[in-house]
Amino acid sequence: MELLVTLPDNLIERLKTVTCEPIVYCIRSDITVDGAYSDDVFVGATKDCLFVFSNGDEQFFEIASLESVRIRKQIDNGLLTVTQNGEERIVARYTLKHAVRFACLAEGVINFVEKKFDRVVKCKEREKQCPKCGRMLRGVGKCPKCDKQSGSFHKMLSVCAPYKWLVVVIVSIMMIMTALSLGQQFVVRWFVDGFLSKGKGTVSDIGLFLLLYVGITMLNMGGQLLKNFLCTKLGLKISHGLRANLSTHLQKMSLGIMGKRSEGELMQRVFNDTGHISRFFTNSFCNVFSQAVTIVSLTVLMLILNWKLALAALFFAPFIIIFSRTFWPHMRKMNHRLHRKSDTIQNKLQDVLSGIRIVKTYGREASEIEAFDNINDDYAVIQYRNEKFYTTVFPFMSLLLSFGTYIIVYLGGMDVLNGEMTVGGLTQFVSYAGMLLGPLGQMSFLPRHIVFMTTSLDRIYDVLDEESDVKISDNPIRREIDGNVSIKGLKFGYRPHEVVLDGVDLEVKKGEMIGLVGASGTGKSTLINLIMRLYDVDEGKIEIDGINIKEYDPADYHRQIGVVLQETFLFAGTVLDNIRFANPDAKLEDVIKAAKVANAHEFICRLPDGYNTYIGEKGHNLSGGEKQRIAIARAVLGDPKILILDEATSALDTESEYQIQQALERLRQGRTTFAIAHRLSTLRCADRLAVIDDHKIAELGSHNELLERKGIYHGLVTAQLEMSGKRLEE
Amino acid sequence: MMNDKLDLNVEQITSIIRLTPENISFEATPGGFIKAKFEGQDKGLVNIIRTFPLSDADRLLSVRLADGKQEEIGIIDAISDFDDATVQLLQKHLKLRYFRPKIQKIISVKEQFGYTYWTVETDMGLVKFASSSGSAGSVIRHKKGVIIKDSNNNRYELEDLSVLSAKELKKIDLYL
Ligand SMILES: Nc1ncnc2c1ncn2[C@@H]1O[C@H](COP(=O)(O)OP(=O)(O)OP(=O)(O)O)[C@@H](O)[C@H]1O
Ligand SMILES: [Mg+2]
Questions:
Q1: What is the pTM of this model?
Q2: Domain containing B120: what range?
């Protein structure tokens, strides 16, 4: 994000009378301290001065006179304050639009206050809005309007590229069909002028005509069927390809990026946007494009045949376009509303059904039924309104269309009477006019369809173009690791202005077991996320066997780590699939051994299908502790060099926890283990304990050493013993 | 055999300390914050927090230290218990703490590239913002109106849908 916007000239001049240092930071706010919106608020700093220009007011603070600069988060806004002579003062206010920038500014100015003048803060976070037009930017930081030339058309072509033969076939069929339906009218004309109007001709002539006419119609219908079939195929193929691309890409992306987008948003991209594209190719691309081909060739043909009549027919085109442009959006809105309502109904129903236990235990059936009835009534009302609209508007529409034909019949009729046109010619022309005006209304929406499709395409590429935060080095190292972990000067925050860990140093020898303890939310899970390299550190480094973690090939590295995470996640599949996840070729005996270590074998044997029991959403329901044990077995089976246990046994009863501990104790020989537990007794076999507090490792040492220090750990242990009614001395 | 210390904690955790003009007084600081004196003791800067900001904005206000662990001093039952000067002071503080412009007039609503762009007149002036069109939760029903959340998580309140003109309603109908 930009932290140095240009100050208006008059303010620059004003600032020059206060300081001659150059401006280092300058950001805007959108509100004054009173909360009034304003385009005229600037806050910034030089190395010796913090300045605030707010709607004509100005404030200058000599940096040397400041004790501190900070932001105070409020609800839906924030305050920038300075402290001078022990008095904290509000100097500026901002909405959440500028929250990150203000946080960075405060951090930057603090550096100056602390006389670290060479440190200039950069804001990692991406700009959310286009600086030029204010539109929301997409993930890769491109503006949908200003960076339009990012090649939507090119993308469309590249999407079609793998199926180019299919496209060629479809387009050829479209051409042939257009030619056929145009030609059909020539047959009619020939028949009318050659036989009917001259009153001669034989039965066989009529037979020939019928044969030709019906033949062409049949051909046309066949072509239509084939075309529809191929178009659907094309649409499905394209969306299938995109979906596959997207999901592979998503799996490769780091958690850092995934965290930036909501799960729902990603799901929407995968399903809705690819759906749009598929629909575009099935409906718009084929129907609308073939109509476009028809319209162009018809117009040309009609102009050649009789330009006067052609102009008369075209005279109606604008009316039809205007008419449909006014009504279609309305219809679209109505449809949209109907869809939305039906979504609401579905959601409500799902809500009630999935929460049926709660609804019943609280005796809320009646009110839930009433709520549902209300929505349902709304739906019916909307549906009724829509139907009414359709039945009134459509007859009008067809009347309008037929007007064009009446005029042509009138003008053309005159021509025929004057002998300037044949009856067959007129018949042909009237048919052409109908063929032209019909699709015109729909055609006027082609640009809209294209925009829709390209927007979806852009949104998909937006995800596809995004590069993973966790970059794979050029020469990734693949090796069997020993498990020496060394963390040096680590600093990390999920968001730039919210540090979670700062200044963490830790040396772990191969085979050592480190217990991580600390209050909830202090960053224990974060630390192991970093060790697993799900995120990259902001400052400092993590080394495995003396090699920076960034040098390793992530996939190869992950293979050698076993994890049991706080939120146990099992895939939809069998127990066996889940245990073998990390090591799909593992022998069945090994699977059982791993399950035994995890104390899971017993309960798995009690499942109806044993190791083949299907678990996951629709399958057999497992308890929290059972899931955890499967996750432990999974971690164990991989024969990991580094074992990570984040609250791995929190959902277990004391007895099975004890058993698993015993087993893990055996297992962890020769493996580096990081274990997080709130129940401190779980960590009794840890070699060393690290207490995380205040963003860093506050205490480090063995259980006994830490007890003697009488610090945080001592406090935690005492509290837990008190809970269980024992005293430390006992 | 529960420990005494633990029992005491439970008591402390669950009891509500009621704040009345008798036990607490507030004072504005020159810097724009407020200080509190509780039972004769200086507490320094405090924040006033609405515990039910949507349903009962002026009731059950939690008074907390502004710094450190932000411990709660106690709870004010109703702001009107205090004298006018204090009420004003507290209201001013709450205005600073909660920023939720009230939409008075809808000037335009446009949908483009997956976002809805709004231009509205609020009690805090004219503002333009964008809300994500697809995602649920960007428009939440609230009493007689709605609360609209923009892409930066700023929130805007439309207090009463029924006061909008038919033209305005038509503009926003689709997005509600
Ligand atoms: N994906 C994320 N994005 C943003 N912030 C996060 C994310 N995960 C965690 N945090 C924040 O980082 C801080 C540390 O979280 P972390 O999960 O490491 O805590 P923890 O020590 O494991 O806590 P617990 O004992 O409850 O598991 C918390 O304030 C949390 O809100
Ligand atoms: Mg955790």
A1: 0.65
A2: 103-175
